[in-house]
Write a structure and sequence with these properties.
The chain is α+β, with helices and mostly antiparallel strands and about 260 residues long. About 20% of the residues lie in helices and about 40% in strands. Strands 3, 6, 7, 8 and 9 form a 5-stranded mixed sheet that branches. The two termini are about 30 Å apart.
Length: about 260
């Protein structure tokens, strides 16, 4: 019986302690949730071999409760965490707080996050090492993205040469991804032209031969532009999040947090 009536007063049942414990777990700082997995990447890859990779990797806090639980040691789990299997998969992550949401066009492809970091992962002396490229939100800052590009390329090659200057530009990939990001052209040791793309949605960094990417116009200062998920304002060299009416359609009640 959910409640008893005594002298016209309702006495509600006391919530179970288990619920309080779950609520406490969900209030853990986002950075701590990511750090837990980053500090145990050897175990994560051992228990999740489908995620083994080297290069750019996205690690984020899921905005949906009970999505993204990974075993990384016997009886130890990282909860509500999303990990990209490939850099391209990381481009489908997007960071949106409680006051923002995705556009309807991205309903079936995106993974909503509350916090996201970009790392470079590689194996050395039998262990996986991670280098932080972009902290949460730094993908909107031109100076931070430039530094991340430099560090990525230093891991990739010692002989790369930058071509032109970094810019926010529109682009289209062969798989149909039509968006914009921070763009850098560079040449490798064989003088082949490549393009780096930093996605404003989550900070994912993509690396493609230039012949495989259609590069569009540069974004105009003071303009508003949208990806599949979010809207941004070009504030000088940086981007600022911008919320539109279309973004408000997703109810925050569905998040489960």
């Amino acid at each position: 019986m959910p409640w008893l009536i005594m002298n016209n007063y309702k006495i509600n049942k006391v919530p179970a302690a288990k619920g309080k414990k779950k609520e406490k777990e969900q209030r853990r700082p986002f950075a701590d949730r990511v750090d837990e997995l980053v500090d145990n990447m050897d175990g994560f890859f051992a228990y999740n071999p489908g995620y083994v990779q080297e290069g750019v990797i996205q690690i984020a806090v899921s905005a949906t409760a009970d999505q993204g639980t990974y075993l990384y040691a016997p009886d130890k789990y990282a909860e509500n965490i999303l990990v990209s299997k490939t850099p391209r998969k990381g481009a489908d992550f997007f960071v949106a707080g409680l006051g923002a949401s995705r556009f309807r066009g991205g309903m079936n492809v995106g993974k909503r996050c509350l916090y996201s970091r970009t790392y470079y992962v590689w194996k050395e002396d039998g262990h996986y090492r991670l280098k932080l490229l972009l902290n949460n939100g730094e993908q909107l800052m031109a100076v931070k993205v430039a530094k991340a590009f430099d560090e990525f390329l230093q891991h990739l090659s010692k002989t790369w040469v930058q071509v032109g200057t970094d810019e926010w530009r529109k682009f289209r990939l062969e798989d149909g991804l039509d968006s914009f990001g921070r763009i850098r052209f560079y040449t490798d040791e064989e003088d082949e032209l490549w393009v780096l793309i930093c996605m404003p949605n989550s900070g994912a960094i993509l690396n493609y031969p230039a012949v495989d990417v259609e590069i569009g116009d540069a974004l105009k200062f003071g303009g508003y532009y949208t990806t599949r998920f979010l809207s941004f304002f070009v504030n000088g060299e940086n981007l600022s999040p911008s919320q539109t009416l279309a973004q408000k359609r997703l109810k925050d009640d569905d998040l489960g947090l």
